[in-house]
Amino acid sequence: MRRRLLASIWLAALLWPAVTRGQEAEGDELEYGATVEVEAPPSEPVRRSVPAEDLRQVAGARGDALRAVEILPGVARSTSYEGGAPVLRGAGQHESVVFLDGAPVPLLYHFGSATSFFPSRLLERVELVPSNFSVRYGRLVGGIIEARTKPPARDRLHAMLELSLIDSAALVETPLGPDASMAVGVRRSNLDFFFSQLVPADAYSVVAAPVYYDYQAIGTLRVARDHRLRLMAYGSRDSLKLLFSKPVLDDPGLRGDIEGVLAFHRANVTLESTPSGPWSQRVSLTAGTLTRQQVVGPLRQKLESVQLLGRVEEKLVLGSAADLVFGIDTDVEVADGTYHGPRPPGPEGDTSMGEGLALSENISIHDPAFEIVQPGAFVELTLRPDRRVTLIPGLRLDWYGHLRHGSIDPRLATRVAVTENTTLKGGVGLFTQPPVWYYTVPSLGNPDLDPYHALHTSVGVEQRLAAGVTLGVEGYYKYIYDDVVATPGSPYFVNAGSGRIFGSELSLELRPSASTFVYAAYSLSRSERRGPAGQWRLFDHDQTHVASATASQRLGAGWSVGGRFRYVSGDPTTPVTGAVYDARVGEYRPSFGPQNSQRRPAFHQLDVRVEKEWKLSPLTLAVYLELLNAYNAKNQEGTRYSYDYAKSEGVSGLPLLPNLGIRGEL
Amino acid sequence: MRPWTLFAALGLLGCDDPLAHPQDIDRLRVLGARVSVNGDASRASPAPGDLVSLEWLVADPDPAPAVGWAFAACPSQARSRGTPECVGPVFAQASAPAPSAALPRFDFTAADAERILVRGVVCRDGVITSLTDSCAGERESVLFELRVGDDNANPTLGDAELWLDDAPWPAPSDLGAAACAPGDLPAASGAKLDVRVVLAGSDRDPIEDPKGLAPPFEPLFVSQFSTLGHFARPLSVIEGSSEELELGVDWRAPDDAVGQRARFYFVVRDGRGGVDWSARTACLVP
């Protein structure tokens, strides 16, 4: 057996853009509630910047800032994040990425949709750029979410212990002398304590119930007057093992056991240099491993990889009217793995995904030997010809070593402050992304695939209507070309697809007092794809209407309440029009009507959060109750069929789910 | 890698109450198809130019339903997923001249192709001449894809031992009789009985896998059906790594069918196109 490594190096340069207005606004005004700020820093037309502390308070997010980004416009509702990130402005999940301090996150949520791997208390901000992102980032045609860690507290020792039905977490932050501080956190799920009571005992026996844990350690050290070193380690592990007592229904493909481990571990070192002169610099190197091991009956996959990610950014202030940012970032990966299972489906639009596992032909790969070397370089100029006008042209160059292909992506963003309260903004640019890596593995897919591209355009306006009242309106259009689509037979994947996405987004923030916060968002969009056949159809996760309203109120005496209501169009579905019995396998194969020509019923849900806090100096004790799906809406998340597809019924999502927790802070 | 995921499978675990039970024969059903090549019932894969006979197992609450049928064969090729499709013109077709209780059988000469796709329609009480003909009675669309040039043998259930509640269970002399017949084993109304199938080692072919990922033998999938009562599950599996060639499944007799004859069908597949079947009967007693 040959070995395969997967490593990523990520190099690039320089300082992050100047502190955003959102950061400047932190203070008493943001002390509480589901506070959201929509800001637009220099590099992108739309950058929704949200203090993590505010996102933690969003009802229904279970205190998870990375999950709470769903309240922002441009973010579709997702039931699973197996693809890596939320659906941003009609892009696939694999086309957007969450970055933690500049490094892409391999697995955002435990078990694909539970809590994120990083505690929100260690985050300073979460920023969403749904499209038209800066040339500092590449290899993506969707959007990005940037999570920025918070420097550990330097004033005194802080400690936190939180226990809830879902998981338990502990966190300690402490100064280490005048120039250093550190934070250590750990979290473990509690699901395994009662999981065996939730599942049908006659279906399978539980060998090892689902368990997830994650850990974080951050240390900062001022090594010189203008240099700060940060060391960070973090990781996550999800695992479970179940043993089927009998095959599931009549699918011969589902038998035996279900077993899985998803784990990653990472170490990061970052050096920031911010001298008083015109030059500043940021150098970051991340190294890590990723383990993905799954067994579903006779199907199995195992992937072990090593990753190195590096980034260097340099910033040169050219005077009051211009800044120059340039740098490099490189991604190299090498992996070793085995695989026995069906050929991978296309990134989306595959109607056969609902068929029985036994109906797909399996392939075995012992050595998908694959190496990825992807260096990139970028340069971005920020011009301020007038105090009200900002122009940001940029250029990004990428090389995809495993594809022997490169790309050149020019981008332009602009902001014009028409009045003190009104800002116009816009952007246009090219974006390029390599195919999902395993589509290019010779024994799995097509090694001759090329990267695919997207043109992003967007315009918008920010309007401050009154004190504490801000309105944002944006419109966008994106066109994807050379998209990767699956074919039924060889070569299985080709660059023959295209996509068009357009929409409008509205956000309204009301902050009438320091104790009240209201945020409303509405997205209207249409996302379509077209394969070699030439017919436009809806994207799998096209959601015409995504509306949410979030509110919170501090009542006094330590009481606070919050709520979030969401209304979202149902995902498109493809109707089953009949079935044919495959006598070779012993199962029915469905036949389908026009792809994605129907929709599930609209989703609606109310989440409520109540918290009571006691200050028992030096301790602060809080008890909270969160009700997910407070009025127990029966939202259809899927459809199941009888063995011959003659009968069907909707499958509802989660019912009313209470989560009670207690938190103590020192 | 996202080809299949743990939690897609986990999601299925909550669906332990199916909308319909595939193991219950409550309408006209096709349960399997068996290939024989040049009259050799043990061969599951033809070579180009071989004479192929494809026999279809049809079951119904009626012990001897009259069915019409039509079949057509065309070349096909490997595809990663989805329903197989023709990649060339139909090279053989046939239909039943009149409805008959005999099992449908389609004979044709194998074309020189990577695979051969046989599509068909089975229709109760009707005469059809093509796959697109309408059918006044129940209609079942079927397909079977043969791999040309494979070296695969059919498993055999004909010599398997079957047991009903620890009693040897012989094949019936007349499966088409509606009433209980001499030789039918008794089954008490409402009782839960143990059904056991003991297969022979020769029923499964060895698997040659130089990569070492596959088990030493092909697995055997046994589907079980009954016209009355209810099997606890529709499918039993003998893994290729298992040395145990015996499987058991509970069958519950109906409460309200005293005096009636229950028919049982067992279909074994090797997952590579090899198929065989066998039938049994039982008489329901108080």
Question: Brief overview, please?
Answer:
With 666 residues, chain A is an all-beta fold. Chain A has helices at 21-24, 52-55, 65-68, 195-198; strands at residues 48-51, 97-100, 103-104, 123-129, 144-149, 158-164, 167-175, 180-189, 204-224, 227-244, 257-273, 279-296, 299-317, 322-342, 362-365, 370-386, 389-400, 405-417, 422-433, 452-466, 469-486, 493-513, 516-530, 536-538, 545-556, 559-568, 572-573, 576-582, 587-592, 598-599, 603-616, 619-628, 636-641, 648-652, 657-665. Chain A has a single domain, classed as Maltoporin, Chain A, CATH 2.40.170.20.
What does this entry look like structurally?
The complex is a heterodimer of chains A (666) and B (286). Chain A is mostly beta strands and 666 residues long. Chain A has a single domain, classed as TonB-dependent receptor, beta-barrel domain (Maltoporin, Chain A, Beta Barrel), CATH 2.40.170. Chain A has 4 helices and 35 strands. Chain A has helices at residues 21-24, 52-55, 65-68, 195-198, and strands at residues 48-51, 97-100, 103-104, 123-129, 144-149, 158-164, 167-175, 180-189, 204-224, 227-244, 257-273, 279-296, 299-317, 322-342, 362-365, 370-386, 389-400, 405-417, 422-433, 452-466, 469-486, 493-513, 516-530, 536-538, 545-556, 559-568, 572-573, 576-582, 587-592, 598-599, 603-616, 619-628, 636-641, 648-652, 657-665. In chain A, strand 9 (204-224) and strand 10 (227-244) form a beta hairpin. Chain A is globular, with a radius of gyration of 25 Å. Chain B contains 1 helix and 17 strands. By secondary structure, chain B is an all-beta fold. The model of chain B is unreliable at 1-15 (pLDDT under 50). Chain B starts with 5 loop residues before the first helix and ends with a strand. The relative contact order of chain B is 0.18. The chains are: A mainly beta (666), B mainly beta (286). Chains A and B meet through strand 12, strand 13, strand 14, strand 28 and strand 33 of A and helix 1, strand 1, strand 7 and strand 14 of B.
